[in-house]
Amino acid sequence: MKEFDPLREFIFDYITVVAENTLSIAVVGSLFARDVQITFLYFFLPFGLALVCMLPCIPTYLIEDLSIKQIMIQRFAEWIVLEVAIIWLVHFLFGDVVGEVVYIVVFFSVAFFEVLSYVIKGYLEKSEADRVNEALKKLHDKRK
Question: Which of 58, 61, 33 has its CA nearest to residue 45?
């Protein structure tokens, strides 16, 4: 069984979020901000946004056994922070170029992909748990 290392998990998730933010900025920037002058600050945006987006996740790395209520509060806080960060990013990238409709679309798309990511993560975790349970069952049957 793999031992839980909170620092390793945090760094792995942080790198994943940085990659997601980089891809999001690249896609959004190439679609809507083609004429925006890019500065070196844009290079650091994914790293800063990932750090901000990871703040609500810290309890999941420090506390191994969270209750359902605590997990729901953590995930809600994570979603709110993500929404605020992405809305800020859109405003930072586009300024007054985009209208309210774009912000509404961004809000709902972030919510959709947040839910979708948890559905996929839950499916993958269930598959892993089923695989481990099957291996334990075979080991138990073998000992009999």
Answer: 33
